[in-house]
Amino acid sequence: MPEGPSIVILRELIENLHLEGAEIIEVGGNTKLDKDRLLHQKVIAFKSWGKHFLICFSDFALRVHFMLFGTYRINEEKESTPRISLVFKNDVLNFYTCSLKFIEGDINEVYDWESDVLSNDWNESKALKKLREKEDVLVCDILLDQNVFAGVGNIIKNEVLYRIGVHPLCTVGSLSMPKVKELIKEARNYSFDFLRWKKEYTLKKHWLAYSKKVCPKNHPIIKEQLGKTNRRTFYCPICQSYEKA
Question: What confidence tens digit (pLDDT) does each residue in 62-89 have?
Fold first, then answer.
């Protein structure tokens, strides 16, 4: 599943095409959405919020969510049929194996940009307030809560928890206040590291815990499906103890 940084990269790639104000002259794909609604619409902006890619028009937006296996192609095609294909005068955007939805009205009234860890509007104080209201939630689940940390996915979750030395089965309420603040800071910090490494094609080289057999201190890494989210979790029981929280 693409995490927030990957969606930011997609947004930047498409922004470089300078399609703002451009008209959609043809719509294809096997989506069941009303494709005719998009025909001859002019794009106002491209935005990203967490794991959502948004193509904005005057009074609605098309939300693209890549789920587990979604992909895209810009000015090229895969052999499979796209979920939706948007044709402009000089460019084509193809989206595959994704979920599509129309978002009605003003996009700014629908999305809370302050909860996006990669947004310039990210609000650390608001994240802290939300965490105080979720003290019984496991940290391995809270990091994947898109209402708190929009854009954080499973890789970021694992790496943040290793960085700050917190066991994934700690609850939010069991953490000291300095450790809660560190968790919030690292969720954003690592997301920007992820973005930079992804652009450099070096992301995997920097993993400390995710998909590893041993941690950087040569301790064995445990792999389990943890939390209500039941996502793959890699952790070092020595470096990430309950006591350190």
Answer: 999 998 889 999 999 999 999 999 999 9
